[in-house]
Amino acid sequence: MSVKTIAGAQVNVSEDGYLEDMNQWNEAIAKEIASEIGIELTPKHFEVLNFLREKTVAKENLTIRGVGKSGIVDIKELYVLFPKGPLKFSSKIAGIPKPTSCI
Description:
Elements: E1 2-6, E2 9-13, H1 27-37, H2 43-57, H3 64-68, H4 75-81, H5 86-94
Antiparallel strand pairs: 1-2
Helix pairs in contact: 1-5, 2-5
């Protein structure tokens, strides 16, 4: 674990760059992490991010298929919003731990 300054806030991150404490997350942090990845967040992105955060709090296992069945986006839309690793990058931006299904 290390400390990183993101959007002016000191946050604890894993060696992969995921927030260690999801309570340190806010929209400004999400926007800066997304910017580092090359993604500009829209309201639809935030719908997905908030869904992921809710499921994490509920201790539900996250999968691409589960997000696709959420009614927020289908799997194709998820790949458009978060290319090159939809669950990996959406989780990182959402400030939640790296899903176990991600390499």
